[in-house]
Amino acid sequence: MIGSGSNVGGASHSAPMSEINTTPLVDVMLVLLVIFIITAPLLTHAVKIDLPQTSSQPVPEKPEVISVSIDASGKMYWNDTPLVQGELKLKLKEIAQKKPQPELNIRADKETRYQVLAEVMADAQNSGVSKLGFVSESK
User: pTM of this prediction?
Assistant: First the structure.
């Protein structure tokens, strides 16, 4: 019977080969290895360019920093000068119009009520102040 796998008169040619022929794979890999070994030093070659020199250095502009301090009783200070009730909103609108906009740092006593702090943050946001930070002390 042909194709039944019996060995009649020699090797059976109809049975599928169960092994993978790895010789072509090894040949391709060796060729790729040789190509990469030859081309890798060429990729690291640097081109020498004589670049022009500049004489001026850019001056980084540091924005003004404004400190709003709130003590335990809720009294507010603008750069260590006391604020009158309602004056904070006017000053916040004033600094929101400046270019570049100053940074507003809020320093609050740890005994300050959160409601006072939240009102200051809301006033700053409503005025258009986008740079807002908190100052704390490390131990």
Answer: 0.54
